[in-house]
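Bit of a strange request maybe. I'm writing a small parser for structure token strings and I need a real example to test against, not something I typed by hand. Could someone generate the tokens for this chain?
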Amino acid sequence: MLLLWILVFVIALAVLIKGSDWFTQAAEKLSHKLGISPFIIGVTVVSVGTSLPELASSIAAVAAGESEIVLGNVVGSNIANIFLVLGLGAIIAGKLSTKWEMRTVDFPILFAATFLLILMCLDGTFTFMEAVFMLFGYGVYLNYLHHKHKVGIHKLSKQQQKATFYKILWPLLIGATLIYFGATWVIKSVVNIATITHVPSSIIAVTAVAVGTSLPELFVTIVAALKKKQELAFGNIIGSNMFNIFGVTGITGLFGTLAVDYTILVFALPMLLVATLMMYFVTARDRTVTRWEGWLLFMLYVFFVVLLF
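Reply from user aminoacidic:
Good idea to test on real output. This should exercise your parser:
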């Protein structure tokens, strides 16, 4: 049985890597075809695609009556996106940089979203109306992006629209599907391997769930960075964190009130605020994350995991 799950892990990892490659290539072609900045494609299309595991697992948790998992999933994934994904991306690529000015709007909105999430969770619950408010906030951010760069598929001819759909959007959807199923089975295989080898459940929760749902962001960011598509990499991380806070909590909160675990409230949420501030200070001056700064972020993630124990 152990060998079977190891084989599943290897196959799922290969599917995840291939899906990330296709997804990144299709997203880059889409940005060129529409004349849109790769950063915006990363913030919208790529980030939503790579956040599918967080959304799916959160909805499943609410359906199973375990709504406290949702906030843990969102907060843990966002911390992993900043410390682990951004850190490893900079380490592997040498550095990550973007030309997009994030200080004026993107970072303030991300700070506001993080702070709002903390305030909403102070009473130990996340309600329906708070979920609606979060979805409204995501709509405001998307509206800003739309007005920031008003170039879209509607400016193409019907023939060009059809060509764009079949040549670009289908590979994008296929890549997203491979990412979703690859990440899902990587998580399942890791959980089963850990169970068979008698690894403590606390370690499974920290690694398989928090890191597992961030695997799409990790692989897409690494692939984009290695292919010198660093605008996509940055946009993916910023957009994923935006979508997790606004979209995942908003959509999931529509299905019922979410419970907030005490550990999430007193430790993980403050750590998320620290992580967001760290990302700002690292990138604010030159919009670049160097390899050494990547190592710093990675070590902070290790520190976070150690403190959880």
